[in-house]
From TrEMBL:
GO cellular component terms given for this protein: membrane
Similarity remark: Belongs to the ABC transporter superfamily.
CDD domains: ABC_KpsT_Wzt, Wzt_C-like
Entry protein name: ABC transporter ATP-binding protein
Ranges where the ABC transporter domain occurs: 27-249
Record lineage: Bacteria, Pseudomonadati, Pseudomonadota, Gammaproteobacteria, Aeromonadales
Domain of life: Bacteria
Keywords: ATP-binding, Nucleotide-binding, Transport
Organism listed in the record: Aeromonas media
Pfam family, one: Wzt_C
Amino acid sequence: MSTFTDSTLLLVSNIGKTYRVFDTPMQRLKDLLGLDARFHEQVALIDASFRVEHGETVAIVGANGSGKSTLLQMICGTLTPSKGTVECRGRIAALLELGAGFNPEFTGMENVFLNASINGLSHNATEAVLPQILAFADIGEYINQPVKTYSSGMFVRLAFSVAIHVEPDLLIIDEALAVGDEAFQRKCFARLRDLQSRGVSILFVSHSAESVISLCDRAILLDHGSLLRDGDPKQIVGLYQKLLYARPEQRDEIRTSIMADVDSCDLNNETDSSIEPISSDEMFSHESEHDDPFNCPDLIPVDPDYYVEGLEARSIDYFENGASIDMPMLLDESGTRVNILHKGCTYIYRYRVRFNEDAFDVSFGTLLKRIDGVSLGGASTSPPKVLSNLHIIENSVRWVDFKFKVRLNEGAYFLNAGVLGSTKNHDGFLARKLDALMFKVLPQDNECSTSEVDFGFSTNIHIVD
């Protein structure tokens, strides 16, 4: 990773950042004068190395304080590394924290020329693209007002418009799009797709899992200044969420397994698809008799024509916080296990939950996703933000059923499983399994529905004389 290749645009080599933190202003003054001063070091980033190729989109994910913004600032040159090097063979345009590269006393128009010049565009070149900048920003007469009077949304409109029109080789976005309204965010993502098609490289920081998965070729996971993993966006997002929702005492073990590149997907050893939970009375009756199939799930028959043994998801289990999830399965209407589904037919998604602590306000859920991790729909046993008032005692077992009619077109899909509630020591996810189960939907002859979900559109073509 120490040298450029013909396809490399950005090379980051063993970069780190350490700050001196002084106890008092006097100690800081002593340090400036070259005298002995008392201080301690705060490490913001530790030996990060990676490369970005031409035309590649790379996400950087991590919790607040993980070093994401520090890394981007060093790549942009607004912050000097304490060690390591950053090399970029091309023009960088960046949207960092709100206000970077803009003078609040200047008007929007003046800031367009200021920011474009910072990004390497001449005055004449900026004038040539000015109509496109103003049209995309769409802030009207506010362009002639000082930017200190702008809302955060207006500011992002202008900053993003300038950044995409200076013809960058590398566009860096640090969560800036999160403050725009929905229509402008959609407009921005469409433009990002256009930039990707023209070979522009993008470094993208976002807390939106779906944006990372759908937009990026790779993702990098940072935590407490360390680069833990660089790889497939879907896997990285899963590991990030697992780390984010773990108990504090569990995080060191997760970090160690991720950095060691072991199978950190199982540390416990661990739409319009109309998914609906079975009624509570029926669902929670699934307990305890020896001749009950729920006690002998291995005895549930398998349909040899519609069950493929090798069709298994590589699931990611979060750490247990009072419960555990296992035995995910799909059943047809006769109660037979399947994983090859027919469009238009009804199925039951079932999983088992074991409670090792008393749990209160318990609800169960599922989420249906495409192969790239983008969510299509889901369901819960209780409405969002409404307490279920369901109490489940320690050492209980529940089987959860979600009944749904397949309105999906041909393809591979994944189902999550999750349990929310409260225990004596935890409030939130008691257990969560990402990609608990994989299934495929068979193709249909003469299918006119496009994309993943069939909304039941009907068409008419009217002849006008």
